[in-house]
Fold:
Amino acid sequence: MSLHALDVIGVRVEMPSNQPIVLLKEIGGSRYLPIWVGAVEATSIAFAQQGVKPPRPLTHDLIKDLLESLDAKIDSIQITEIKEGVFYSSINFAGGRNVSARPSDAIALALRTGTPIFGSEELLAEAGIEIPDQSEDEVERFKEFLEGINPEDFQP
Structure:
């Protein structure tokens, strides 16, 4: 299976549904992968991207702390497939173990631990959106939007 490294571009709210999405981009490619996520997970991802440290650990901070205390090392996150509109992923540990996870949780954890994120060629072919290079201004507008958004914007 051919894997492609993905970078988290950011989180935004899709209109008119008011549903948060996390947008990933194929590193060295032109495909983007939008994944709809819950408001809590969107907030957690946005916090991690903005370097926000809450006064008490959020769930993903707690998981990171637990893994560190157990000396468990995450090697990679892999977004594995989409079935009936639902994305699936795995958290892959050193030593070959892996755990199934929702992509939003896996992404939030990856951002906190510096873990690389991958997607398969099959997944990107099925669910990826190709944005040619001439659309760089659109990507820049999206990045500007992300810089102006606050995690509180995702609270229900």
Observations:
- The CA atoms of residues 45 and 108 lie 5 Å apart.
